[in-house]
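Slide 14.
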Amino acid sequence: MTDSRNDADQELAAFTLPVRVYIEDTDAGGIIFHPKYLHYMERARTEWCRGRGVGLRSGLGDNISYVVQKLDIHYAAPGYVDDELLVTADVMDAGRVWMEFDQRVSRAIDGRELARASVTVACVALDSGRPRRLPEDLGQLLKKHLAAKISSKRHQE
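Slide 15: predicted structure.
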């Protein structure tokens, strides 16, 4: 028998994507080159959506694209070639044309946080770059997810 509360908690937990660090991700000293963390975070955000049935790139035919509007990142410790990382994506807020994620990159073996970021992604018209409303399926997903997070938080208090 499945505990539906555990299923709900898992659904609300931050999405985690395992990533291996390859030589191509590092500088000459074998340390992860700082912009690579952004690549890892991009993948985790995309997989968060894809895992919930929303393919972000499927909107290209409908003149929809997504751009990072705001990024605040803190690099806490170095990662190295061959490290296995855990990259998380957790939706924190959303509006009509944007969504905000809390993201972390940590080393799997010891849990050490290597980087943490707040990333705001905006929906734009592909042809003009102007802001546009999030697609209905994504907007509904975000609204449902955030409402469930608020409800869960209240229930825990």
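Speaker note: Confidence is low (pLDDT under 50) at residues 1-6.
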